[in-house]
Every structure is written in C-alpha cells, then in structure tokens.
Design brief:
There is one protein chain. This protein is an alpha+beta fold and 162 residues long. Helices cover 41% and strands 15% of the residues. The strands form 2 sheets. The chain has a 3-stranded mixed beta sheet, with no helix packed on it. A two-stranded antiparallel ribbon has the order 1-2. Helix 3 packs across helix 4 (73-85). The chain is globular and about 50 Å long.
C-alpha cells in the first residue's frame, strides 16, 4: 500500500482533545453495554484513532508500549477482538489491517470501506441497507453477525495526479 504513490496525502488521525473525547465516548459506550474498557483495550483504540488509517496488528504490537516496549501478541489481538465486537474497530480483510470505526451507532452496522490502491487512504462510508442482506441470509438459513464491504480504487487526490 502506498508504494506506487509519489505525492503527499494527509492521513492524520486524532490527537489532543479530539482523541481524549473519542476515547471517553468509547469508554462510555463500553460501560453502557456492560463491558470494561481496560488499559490495553484503550491503548489499542488510541493507536488506531491516532493513526487515522488502517494499521496491521504487528504494527500495533510494536507500538503498543508508551515506553517503546512491544506488547505480547495475544494482548493486542484480544483488544482488537473486543473492539470489533463492540463495533469500535473493523478488520479490513483485503489488506489485513484494522481501523477505528467512524460510526457512533449500532455495533452491528454494515461497515463499508473505500480503499485507495495507490496511497492506502481508507474511508468508512455508510453501508447499504442491511434489511435486504438480512432477508437474503434468512432465506438461505443464515444469521448475519457482521457485514464488511470493501471497495478498491483510487482516491480523488491520486486520480488527480495520475
């Protein structure tokens, strides 16, 4: 990702007060659902929010410790599983990376991502109407736990410079 891109992009995430507010809101959502936002879960979410773009799990492991110490992989993977389950993060399978969720609503919403194959910019957009997907799944005897749609192409900045 991004290796074919020879121009600058702003992929900055949250910091300062915006980061603090996002973490406080996430903690409140966890408590509202009867869950705990442990220090490890909070740290992984903070790393995702600060980055502002998809991050591979091993990059999270390497950057986990505020003192430069890497985390043990199970610590980060358990935190990611928790954040995914509560709808605070998504796994983008096609690039094997994780991203903080930008939707403050339902944990089971249909996540849809636009992924730039040039610079790696990833944007979460409103997913399609979930009712049609649920009806098709039900007719086939399935119950959908979560839906993630990934669309690859080029962002506006990369298209302009091509």
């Amino acid at each position: 990702m991004g290796s074919a891109c020879d121009h600058d992009h702003d992929h900055s995430g949250l910091n300062g007060g915006a980061l603090d507010r996002a973490l406080a809101a996430a903690e409140a959502r966890a408590v509202q659902r009867g869950e705990r936002m442990t220090a490890q879960r909070r740290r992984v979410l903070a790393l995702l929010l600060e980055t502002g773009e998809p991050v591979k799990a091993y990059d999270l492991i390497a950057r986990f410790g505020e003192d430069g110490q890497a985390a043990k992989p199970p610590t980060v993977y358990r935190a990611l599983e928790f954040l995914e389950r509560l709808g605070m993060a998504h796994r983008i399978a096609s690039i094997s990376a994780y991203v903080a969720c930008t939707d403050d609503g339902d944990a089971a919403h249909a996540a849809a991502f636009l992924i730039c194959d040039c610079c790696g910019a990833t944007r979460e957009v409103s997913g399609p109407d979930q009712s049609a997907m649920n009806a098709a799944a039900s007719a086939a005897g399935y119950a959908i736990a979560r839906t993630t749609i990934e669309a690859h192409g080029r962002c506006a900045a990369c298209r302009e410079t091509a």
